[in-house]
Q: What sequence folds into this?
């Protein structure tokens, strides 16, 4: 992959695809890790006299303009961190974007509005995506792919725009790939993978491939309940992917045949509502009351998970074990984070919310071998898949 050092950027309009998909609460950014991770590439381009046009997505607004998914707060934070004004375009490829891009001085920075306000960005139709990519590419002369967390998406800004402009990988993508490559080549065993989070359907799929690679797979977060249900237990009002039950049963069978250990929670913190002040209690994993929903793995499970990580020599962890944003449901995530640290293994934490959890719960980032900005992206990379965003940069 070409890096930005291979590009001539002085005085040119450079479109940087970043991953600025940060957690927000009531319009305020609760963790700016992904913005910080994007700074080195933006700063390097500015220092070389580029006119930097940053583009990114926030959440999943599904092709509609939804003000709660505006990148405006991100533009403000980016400006603070860069110590310069960031011109914020109120659209993606319209008049405002063209004016912002066209008005940049050398070394100045603009941020476009949420790419996913445009249906073309995520469209599965090549022509619709291509037409949007044409308009996005027209804003710039050069493209830099640096949104590692989104490289697994065949989206216009990730996959189609680099095919239309001279392009290179930014420093973040280059650094992420270098670390993750180690996990696909020579893994020290036992190799444990801990999975959680809420993007259950995205992440159940990766287990297929992990069964041939990992020695142990620990399951927490929202995906637990599809496993518990597949084992015949009731899960109350918890997150559930009914249509994945057969898939999960097949995973459990294959794991047994292949000698891969699935570690499932033995207890669950079940609450009456998705709220910090809801009535909640730890219950056995096979006895979740019908009117409750599971929001964390329970204390016994925290101990079990830490014990199954203790002798691992490599650990990859993606997805919080519970709704860590609310204190009563943060303990499972804390236990697993501590388990990674205590294991002394080569530890990689991947994902926007997973990395945010580590920081919010007060852990020292340096205690982990690598904190990746990509969750789904790093999992798919570890599967050995060709990721659209990396493929486009290599071509
Ligand atoms: N039992 C649960 N029920 C509902 N939500 C849960 C549960 N456990 C964890 N979560 C939520 O999962 C979210 C994070 O999931 P997600 O899959 O997005 O992880 P991630 O680390 O950000 O990975 P990616 O980068 O792929 O998005 C958190 O906001 C957390 O509250
Ligand atoms: O949060 C992430 O993992 C990335 O920003 C990609 O977001 P997506 O899962 O909504 O495509």
A:
């Amino acid at each position: 992959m070409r890096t930005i050092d291979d590009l001539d950027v002085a005085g040119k309009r450079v479109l940087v695809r970043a991953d600025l998909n940060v957690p927000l609460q009531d319009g305020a950014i609760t963790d700016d890790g992904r913005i910080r991770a994007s700074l080195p590439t933006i700063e390097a381009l500015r220092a070389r006299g580029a006119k930097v046009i940053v583009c990114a997505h926030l959440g999943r607004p599904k092709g509609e303009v939804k003000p709660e998914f505006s990148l405006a707060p991100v533009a403000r934070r980016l400006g603070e961190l860069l110590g310069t004004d960031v011109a914020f375009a109120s659209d993606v490829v319209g008049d405002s974007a063209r004016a912002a891009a066209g008005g940049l001085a050398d070394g100045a920075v603009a941020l476009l509005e949420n790419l996913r306000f445009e249906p073309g960005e995520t469209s599965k139709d090549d022509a619709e995506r291509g037409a949007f990519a044409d308009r996005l590419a027209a804003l710039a002369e050069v493209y830099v792919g640096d949104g590692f967390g989104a490289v697994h998406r065949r989206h216009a800004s990730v996959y189609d725009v680099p095919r239309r402009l001279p392009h290179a990988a930014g420093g973040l993508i280059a650094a992420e790939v270098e670390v993750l490559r180690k996990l696909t080549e020579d893994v020290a065993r036992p190799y444990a993978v801990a999975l959680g989070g809420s993007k259950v359907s995205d992440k159940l799929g990766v287990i297929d491939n992990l069964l041939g690679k990992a020695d142990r797979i620990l399951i927490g977060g929202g995906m637990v309940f599809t496993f518990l249900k597949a084992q015949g237990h009731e899960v109350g009002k918890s997150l559930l992917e009914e249509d994945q039950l057969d898939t999960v049963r097949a995973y459990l069978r294959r794991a047994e045949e292949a000698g891969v250990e699935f570690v499932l929670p033995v207890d669950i913190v079940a609450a009456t509502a998705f709220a910090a002040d809801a009535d909640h209690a730890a219950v056995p994993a096979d006895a979740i009351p019908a009117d409750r929903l599971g929001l964390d793995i329970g204390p016994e499970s925290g101990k079990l998970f830490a014990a199954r990580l203790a002798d691992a020599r490599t650990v990859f962890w993606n997805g919080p074990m519970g709704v860590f944003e609310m204190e009563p449901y943060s303990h499972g995530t804390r236990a697993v984070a501590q388990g990674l640290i205590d294991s002394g293994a080569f530890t990689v934490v991947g994902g926007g919310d997973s990395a945010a959890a580590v920081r919010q719960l007060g852990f020292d980032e340096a205690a982990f071998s690598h904190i990746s900005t990509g969750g789904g992206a790093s999992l798919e990379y570890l599967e050995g898949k060709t990721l659209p965003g990396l493929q486009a940069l290599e071509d």
The chain has two domains: 4-175, 187-383. The longest strand covers residues 13-17. The first helix runs from residue 33 to 47.
